[in-house]
Amino acid sequence: MSSTLVTTHTPFETPIHVLDLPDMESLNGVIERLLLAEAMRGQSLRVSNRGGWHSPPDLALRSGTPYQTLCDTLAEHFRNATAAAADRVGIELPPFRLALTAWAMVMGPGHYTTLHDHAEATWSSAYYVQAGDPAPYEMPAAGTLAFVDPRRATPSVRGIDLFPSAFEVTPRTGRLVIFPGYLQHYVHPYLGRRPRISIAANVVVQATPQTAQTEPPT
After folding, report:
1. What is the CB neighbour count within 10 angstroms for residue 48?
2. Strand partners, 166
3. Per-residue H/E/C for the chain
4. Across residues 169-195, what is the average pLDDT?
5. pLDDT (tens digit, 9 = 90+) per residue, 44-101?
6. Domain spanning 17-150+165-215: which superfamily?
7. CA nearest to 191, candidates 153, 143, 129
8. Backbone angles phi, psi at 49, to 5 degrees
9. For residue 218, what are the CA distances in angstroms to 101, 134, 175, 184, 204?
């Protein structure tokens, strides 16, 4: 008996947006100098990071600074990601606002982050102000941003990787990675000598009758 394929569904997709932002060199340079100076002065928070410097999560509140300029750029791409997600499931977006929180990390040799997520956020992101040195040839995964399959364990097929358990993104200066906040992720130990500087952000999408805008969390 023959059959006719009506359609193939792909429910429970997990979008990961990887964008290389143009014309960011000048802004990146200013932010790099500011963060390196701040890292020299201040104590680091310890959250998922092991080693390195972790700023307070207040960058989006520093109005009139290069951080605010970057956060405005991030917000634009968070809006685009939200619109793309709505289009993918066929819904019309109501007016919405973004509550954005951002912080910085400076990594040196051997620094990494442990497996974690940002379940309270609709979207999370990593932006590389300065990616530092590339991974050594013999250890290509060093310093990469790794995402873990959010599905429950799936049976493996010997010799056929039908359902990969991880997805890795190579850092690059000016690169922005946007992903759902529920998605578990970690960073392999960075082995470069130059500092790697990144800015992470969480966004909560909130439906509102007002015009879409970016505001710090209350």
Report:
1. 17
2. 148
3. CCCCCCCCCCCCCCCCEEEECCCCHHHHHHHHHHHHHHHHHCCCCCCCEECCEECCCCHHHCCCCHHHHHHHHHHHHHHHHHHHHHHHHCCCCCCEEEEEEEEEEEECCCCEEEEECCCCCCEEEEEEEECCCCCCCCCCCCCCEEEECCCCCCCCECCECCCCCEEEECCCCCEEEEEECCCCEEECCCCCCCCEEEEEEEEEEEECCCCCCEECCC
4. 97
5. 999 999 999 999 999 999 999 999 999 999 999 999 999 999 999 899 999 999 999 9
6. q2cbj1_9rhob like domain (2.60.120.620)
7. 143
8. -75, 140
9. 10, 39, 29, 26, 12
Q: For residue 129, give every residue at least 6 positions away whose Cβ sits within 8 Å of its Cβ, in sequence order, or none.
A: 28, 31, 32, 35, 104, 173, 197, 198, 199
What type of residue is 159? G
Q: How far, in Å, CA of 85 to CA of 201, rounded?
A: 18
Q: Are 130 and 29 in contact (CB under 8 A)?
A: no
Amino acid at 72: D
Residue with tokens 């399959």: 149
d(CA 204, CA 76): 14
Q: Are 51 and 110 in contact (CB under 8 A)?
A: yes
By the 8 A CB rule, do 107 and 171 touch?
A: no
Retrieve residue 172's tokens: 């690059």
pTM of the model: 0.90
